[in-house]
Amino acid sequence: MSTQSPEAKQAAKQADFGGVSRQARGAHIDRPAPALRHEAPPAGPTTFAAALNTALADAMETDPSVLVLGEDVGKLGGVFRITDGLQERFGKERCFDTPLAESGIAGMAVGLAMNGMRPVIEMQFDAFAYPSLEQVFSHIAKMHNRTRGRVKLPITIRIPYAGGVGGVEHHADSSESYYAHTPGLKVFTPATTQDAYLMLREAIASDDPVIFFEPKKMYWSKQEADLSALRTAYEDGSAPRVEGCARIAREGSDATLIAYGPSVPTAVAAAEAAAEDGTSLEVIDLRTLVPLDDAAVEASVRRTGRAVVISEAPGFASVAAEIVARVQERAFTSLASPIKRVTGFDIPFPAPKLEKYQIPSVDRILDAVDELTWED
Asked: Which CATH class is domain 44-236?
């Protein structure tokens, strides 16, 4: 029989979970930030990867219930180095390596979240996450509903996805449709350095489980960003909300290109090329697939009267197909032409030398624009 007092037992329980009481299940732990904070990269050209790394570090500093776990996320810093330095800064209890067992990683996160933690999982590669789908679909997505709201699972599952890096099979899938189809999950996918930071902070702070898709070909792309200013704006509440809020990546008047994640830069490049021939294309970056900003998409299509949806994933039964259906339902009377899609082909992802044919390109997008009906 234990000789510990009730107070000592409770203290031991809280110590086991980073000082967070089991009674704080799923709640955001509102604690002051430590006095000494790491320095974000200086303002200027900043990589997508640096923005994600900074967002993880800031979330861990402001909330002791945030944990990072996955394969090689500790000493190695992740296969793409997104978790670089986190174990050294926060210790092995808050950033730790797991066995090569994605189902076990997701199941562990369920237990952690039920006991007041906010686990952030790295699945390493898109198709590596498939063994975890039973945990994600049957438990992570449904626990809140199953318990009538009593148990929340604030889990963020980071998935590097899509092609463009010469990856072989299981290293270049676009699997967002599986998750977007599953009620109970939010699905985020940033396309800019600034959004990478803000959206990851929002995902980690959410009381709902978030599937966070990271376009791996964009990790080392650079854009102007002041991560210190973004940190301040996010933490004082002045940063614009990103969840469910699409953005206009480029204004236009003749047709709307609707894209997300890795397809956004390609859509912008296509719009720039079209402008040289006198065609004005608006580009909508969806940012979050669940929730989807129907209002912003509808407003753009009503202005332009034409639309092309762009996605790397295969087109059949896809997010792109859903967007086409929703636009047709909401803006049918404004359409001057049937909606076109430019997607990956309905085949397994090809060998590296052939991936350029699978991934939507500027030429394929412009071909789709040319197929729109232009008689007014």
From this structure: alpha beta
